[in-house]
Structure formats: structure tokens, C-alpha cells
Amino acid sequence: MIEKTSYDSPEYDIFKANVKKLTGLDLNSYKNQIHRRVHMLMQRWNIAEYDLYFKTIRENDQKLREFLDYLTINVSEFFRNPAKWTELRETIIPRLIQSRGKKQLKIWSAGCATGEEPYSLAILSLEARLSPQSPVLASDFDQGALSIAKKGTYLKRQILNVPQDLISRYFTTRDGGETYSVTQEVKGRVSFQRLNLIEDSFADDFDLILCRNVVIYFSAETKTALYHKFFRALRPGGFLLVGSTEQIFEYRKIGFESAGAFLYQKPA
Questions:
Q1: What is the DSSP letter of 218?
Q2: Residue 208 in contact with residue 107, Cβ under 8 Å?
Q3: I need a surface site. Which of 8, 73, 183, 186 has the fewest CB within 10 A?
Q4: What share of the chain is helix, strand, coil (3-state, %, to 5)?
């Protein structure tokens, strides 16, 4: 059994440093919940020593995949929280088009997991007839998740929120309707990139950034630093949409204005 005091042990510090070198995941930037998950998986695998734990994930790709999935909870679906997508389609994107005076918007899905969110954005961009010259940027630090995202193939349960007319236009199906793949037209609207939100520098001049259900385990200090980076990455008048459990309480100190529930705007 791993004792709670091991959270602060020198051995755990070495393990965290090794994980960061291997995956880019900085466990020091997360709350205690993520550390509990680290140790719960350690117990599930019946491993009592950190050096063996790290050796296991370093030398076994399947164990590394399980480790990252368990920590980062890569669970998503198309048009998750449909009301927010309706707001994006009917209000936010039209406002951006009107204010920019053109149909070329720079959009980023930050923490895209297995691709459902950026492909949802790509579908909205096609419906709004946005310019294909600025594909949706989709970033994640998890290379395994990005590999799945690039394939663009999903189970039926992951597209339950997609209206039937959009399914007909933007998906192909097989296996008797149990598996769906986004069309090449949708794929062509997304550009994938491996990116560490905490440590890497960002591009700028984004009109819209979605970062939802990504920072839930981040420490308060890390969240604040990240939201400052997002603020700088937005063009004046640009929007940041966060998850329904990730309200930014001190958004004014960062410079944002509230634009609705879990939606923030950089002043024009």
C-alpha cells in the first residue's frame, strides 16, 4: 500500500521528473486529485516502488497509454453540452464574422483529446462557410490521443449530439451504423499539433479558443497563469470558452469581460 506521505517523498519527486521528461506532463502543476489517481493506478498494478512504476510505463506502450488516459480522462463526444454549441453557431461565430469583416477566423481547440471538439468546430466552420485557409488548430500534449484524433473514427455513442442532417453531410458510416468517420472535408479543416499548454509558447491572434474540461485538476496558480496566456493569445474582441466546472472567478484581474456562462471576451 502506498502511504499518503509518499506524495512528498524524494522518490516521488524523481518519478514526477522522469514522467515529465517522458511525456511532457508536469504533475507538479496539478491538484492532489491527480496525485491520488497516480497512486491508485500504482496500487491497481500492484507496484510498490516508483522506479519500477516508471520502468513499466517507459517500456510498455500499452501501460503508458493506460497511465495517460487514467490521468487525463480523455472522454469526449461531438457537440458536448449542445447549448454552448448552439451559442457558438448562432451568436459567437456570426459576431466574430461581423466584427472582423471577413470569414477567415482563427480558432483553437486547446486540449483536444481524441478530436471530437475540433471536428465539431470544423463542422461549424463549414456550416458558416468560413475560409478553409485558417483550419481549426487542435492541440494536446498526449501523442496517443492525437493519433486517435487524426484517424477521425468514432463510435455511435460519441455522435449522439450531432443532428441527423449534419451526420448525413459530414460523416460516413460502417459496421451497420456503429462506427462513424468524419469526411475528408472535415479533416481538411483541422490541423493537429502536440503542445504543452503550461510550458510551451502559443501562437497569437486567435478569434476563438475552447479549453474545456482540461484544467479541472490544475492548481489555482497554474490555472491563472494559463488563462493569462490565453488572454495574450486572443485578438481584441476574441472569446475564450471554458468547461462548465471551470468558471474563472477573477477574470477581471486577467483582463477579460464576461460574455455569458463560462464564456469570456478580450475587450476590443
A1: B
A2: yes
A3: 8
A4: 50, 20, 30
Cα–Cα distance for residue pair 97/74, rounded to 1 Å = 32
- Residue 209 CA to residue 207 CA, distance in Å, equals 7
CA dihedral of residues 113, 114, 115, 116 (deg, nearest 10): -100
User: How much is the pLDDT for 36?
Assistant: 86
Q: What is the dihedral of CA 243, 118, 180, 213, to 10 degrees?
A: -20
Task: Tell me the HSE value of 205 on the side-chain side, using a 13 A CA sphere.
Answer: 5
Task: Give the pTM.
Answer: 0.77
Phi and psi torsions of 134, nearest 5°: -125, 80
Query: Would you give the distance in Å from CA 130 to the centre of its chain?
Result: 22
* Grid coordinates belonging to 90: 448562432
- What does 18-73 look like in DSSP terms, one character per residue? HHHHHH---GGGB-HHHHHHHHHHHHHTT---HHHHHHHHHH-HHHHHHHHHHHH-
Phi, psi values for residue 116, rounded to 5° = -60, -40
